[in-house]
Amino acid sequence: MTGGQEPPPEDAGISAALDILGALDPAAYADRSRRCGPAERSPGGHGAAAGTCRSRVCVGRGDDRGAGLRAAEGSAQVGPIEKITLPTLADDTSITPVLSVTLHAQPQEPVPIVSLSRHLRSHHGMPASPDYFQSQSGGPVGMWPEGFPAPAPGLTPPRVGGQGSGVTIAVYDTGLVRPAQSNHPPNVTQLTPGDIETLDADSDKIVDLYFGGHEVAIAGVIKVIAPAAEVEAVRITEANGVATDVSAARRMATTLREAKRSGSWPDVIVAAFGTQVCDEDPSTPGSDMVPLGLQAVAEAVDRHDESFVVASAGNRSTSRRFYPAAFSESFPTVLAVGALDTTVDADQSPWTSASRTGPRASFSNYGSWVGGWAPGVDLPTNHVIGLRFDAKEPVINGVARVNGTSYAAPLVAGLIAERMARATVDAEDAWEDIAARGVTCSAINGSGVAVALGAMTDSAMSPPRAPRAATDC
């Protein structure tokens, strides 16, 4: 808590989830105060802690900000400063690096990291932000919008036609599960030997973290839509399995520097993770104190203009911005994707809709910053083998039904890969082509364009097969 304020009411599920997060990372710190941003409860019943971050890490941008931090440190001791360097531009000019600063609290005195970040901004003119945790579920920590992945009878056959041939999609996420524990799609490989996810460290046949197998499931969605695309799995999580702004930015910066050096940029980047953020000014809701690490990565991708980021809009049923997806408002090479529920139309397929649109999924975030909409409810996809997600949950044997904007985003990435291969255009132009043929959503959802396939035999450019319904996005 900051400023001595009492936390707003919080349901037992959120408290338990935050307790779990604290056990995973002793530096975890949840700012539940209203100064971080209004507490929310979505129509779907998903509560939301106002802000969750690592209390010992603050992020700034510049070459040496240690002096400002030391002036503001208060009872905390400033530790090592890590510089995260982005790839230089073609003219050898640099993008401002990100500084990750570890702050060591005094015993029994957690660092008020949100207040400190605001102080650095207002009194020292220093860009600063907490090191926000990045949630793979896009919702409250420890929860999926419609419960855990559920067993499915079988996989959807990939589309026929070699969609996405020659296109590389980099998925920054949990890393690739070892083959014995997951049903790998044939089109996915780990970028490096270290991009591995450990599912069940204690061998109790229960997945250790609720988002286990997330990257495999994402790759399975891409396999259905663009079976000929190459998928590179990249791990952004720390050793404990949790991702933060710093861990994600560090890994993305490293791989993008190597991509520039080797001339092998991914065509499309999928970012199926994110966070809501605290307000820079508590009296001004929406004055977002954005995650500076991921902001720098988005800037680097945009200025190099070699890749296109497709990011999940989040699963909190709110118009409140969710980052990195909401960097779409600042960088044209970032696309935020919300989820449609296409299980309710006549064709009975979760993948398609004859109108190319559908109702907004009950859990999906929305708003003017969301540019694309695609199916994200009850999609059967590749998943873990021989493991449960809870002692009371059924065993998953390689195929599961999943829900979330985490899966709407890679579906759009697959459509972009299809268009890139067929029209020989870059990813940004491919999206513009697809969007021009899609169905514009209503203003109540913030507009954006729905691009569900009318049928699995259609292309990303096919017209709708039926008129939209009154309940559609």
| Residue share in helix | 10-25%
Q: Provide the number of structural domains.
A: 2
Strand content: 15-25%
Radius of gyration: 21 Å
Distance between the termini: 38 Å
Q: How would you classify the helix and strand content by structural class?
A: alpha/beta
Q: Which CATH-level-2 architecture of the largest domain? A: 3-Layer(aba) Sandwich
Q: Predict the CATH topology of the largest domain.
A: Rossmann fold
Tell me the major beta sheet.
Answer: 9 strands, mixed
How many helices? The count is: 8
Uncertain residue segments: 1-35, 37-58
Number of DSSP strands? 22
CATH superfamily of the largest domain: Peptidase S8/S53 domain
Average pLDDT figure = 84
Order of helices and strands: HEEEEHEEHEEEEEEHEEHEHEEEEEHHEE
Strand arrangement in the largest pleated sheet: 11-13-9-15-16-17-18-22-21
* Assigned CATH class of the largest domain: Alpha Beta
Q: Overall 3D geometry?
A: globular
What does this molecule look like?
The protein has helices spanning 12-24, 66-72, 113-124, 214-225, 245-262, 292-304, 405-423, 427-437, and strands at 28-31, 40-41, 47-48, 51-61, 77-84, 98-104, 128-134, 150-151, 168-173, 176-177, 188-190, 196-197, 230-235, 243-244, 268-271, 308-312, 334-340, 372-375, 379-387, 396-402, 439-440, 449-450. The chain is globular and about 60 Å long. Residues 1-35 and 37-58 have low confidence and may be disordered. The protein contains 8 helices and 22 strands. By secondary structure, it is an alpha/beta fold. The strands form 5 sheets. Strands 11-13-9-15-16-17-18-22-21 form a 9-stranded mixed sheet, sandwiched between helices. Strands 1, 4, 5, 6, 7 and 14 form a 6-stranded antiparallel sheet that branches. Helix 4 (214-225) packs parallel to helix 7 (405-423), helix 5 runs parallel beside helix 6 and helix 7 crosses helix 8 (427-437). The two termini are 38 Å apart. It has 2 domains: 12-132, Alpha-Beta Plaits; 150-450, Rossmann fold, CATH 3.40.50.
